[in-house]
Amino acid sequence: MVINETAIEVRYAETDQMGVVYHANYVIWMEVGRTKLIEQIGFKYAELEEQGYMSPVLGINVQYKTPIRYGEKAVIRTWVKNHTRVRTTYGYEIVHEDGTVAVTGESEHTVVKKETFRPVAFNKIAPQWDAKYHEIKAEQ
């Protein structure tokens, strides 16, 4: 299993009036982690879109454990939890600098043709990327 770790410095704009990271920002950070994982294994999501495909979110699940505050640093850990012909599930853990877990979550995605929004088999349009996901996924 490959886990990408991406550091984030909490900006003031990402917090609420209490100085705590606003809950929706964790979902944005998950996207950052997902993009960095894809790049780490040698691919670019933007190139998939250039070829006429998109990967919409089918579902997202987030559990909030401990707050992260303005001025702190966080690390987004991202991995491929499961991968099939038409669905990919990413796992996430966002932790404080000391390793304390702040957030856990997962998101489920599919790949669709841009103009029709019809699902396509990932192995048909990106066989090397598909093979890499099978190689690194957590659930074997």
From TrEMBL:
<protein>
    <submittedName>
        <fullName>Uncharacterized protein</fullName>
    </submittedName>
</protein>
<dbReference type="InterPro" id="IPR050563">
    <property type="entry name" value="4-hydroxybenzoyl-CoA_TE"/>
</dbReference>
<dbReference type="InterPro" id="IPR029069">
    <property type="entry name" value="HotDog_dom_sf"/>
</dbReference>
<dbReference type="Pfam" id="PF13279">
    <property type="entry name" value="4HBT_2"/>
</dbReference>
<comment type="similarity">
    <text>Belongs to the 4-hydroxybenzoyl-CoA thioesterase family.</text>
</comment>
<dbReference type="InterPro" id="IPR006684">
    <property type="entry name" value="YbgC/YbaW"/>
</dbReference>
<dbReference type="GO" id="GO:0047617">
    <property type="term" value="F:fatty acyl-CoA hydrolase activity"/>
</dbReference>
<keyword id="KW-0378">Hydrolase</keyword>
